[in-house]
Amino acid sequence: MTISIGVQGASGGVGASSLVAALGLRAAQSGRSVVCVDHRSAGGGLDVVLGVEQAAGLRWPDLHRARGSLDGAELVPALPMARGVGVVACDRRHPHEIPPAAVDALRRGLDGCVDVVVHDLPPTVAPGWPAVVRGHDLVALLVGGGATQLAAGAAVTLLLLEASASGIGVVARTDGQDEAACVADLLHLPLLGVLRSDRSAEGCLARGVVPGSARGPLRDLADEVLLAAVLEERAA
Fold it and tell me: How far apart are CA 179 and CA 100, in angstroms?
């Protein structure tokens, strides 16, 4: 069975892509086959975070006409790879929207073909967002502790529930467990973990280091979220 994890940032700058990269890396280091999927059609991109923006391989423009189900056994070896993690990302030379039918075809093709798929979910205003957030074993909602970030977290929580997303839990971007527990209580969601300030993760992109590859809070958080996803999948 494939474990599917969605990572949703409640607002910009909370570290969703870094967590996706860390989840993919830690899953691969545990011996699992992994693919990380970036659902943003433009921007910095998960491929940049994982350091494969110049690597050869299939990207969303190559897959946007896909319908039905892709052949996962052929697809995965053709993707850009970062330390054992396959990456599906945009091509900034050819930016365009990602068709919902292509997303469905990709998810069907990866289901049962790899052990773990981690989705860097798009903003809630993206076309087809409700369908993209359904069907995961776990959705990790990253929420900051500031007033505006909490307000955004409350709004996104309601949208996730309206979209019938399952297995929703909070990752709180705070520096303390008590503050994180308050964030989870305010949103009426279980607390998956805390994304504390992580000196080892700061400047990873500039150094060409994948977030979560060094010991520190981000790597510890990734392990906690992976464990929660495994438990959710077993309980399903």
Answer: 37
Paired sense of beta strands 3-9 and 138-144, if any: parallel
- Answer for the pair 45, 156: CB distance below 8 angstroms, yes or no: no
Cα angle 1-215-120, degrees, rounded to a multiple of 5 = 45
Contact between 203 and 3 under an 8 Å Cβ cutoff? The reply is: no
Residue numbers of the chain with a pLDDT score lower than 70: 43-44, 198-208, 235-236
Q: List C-alpha distances in Å: 159 to 11, 168, 185, 228.
A: 13, 12, 17, 22
Q: Collapsing DSSP states into helix, strand and coil, what is residue 147?
A: helix
* Total-model pTM: 0.94
CA atoms within 13 A on the CB side of 217: 17
Give per-residue burial for 197-215: e unless 16+ CB within 10 Å, then b. ebebbeebeeeeebbbbee
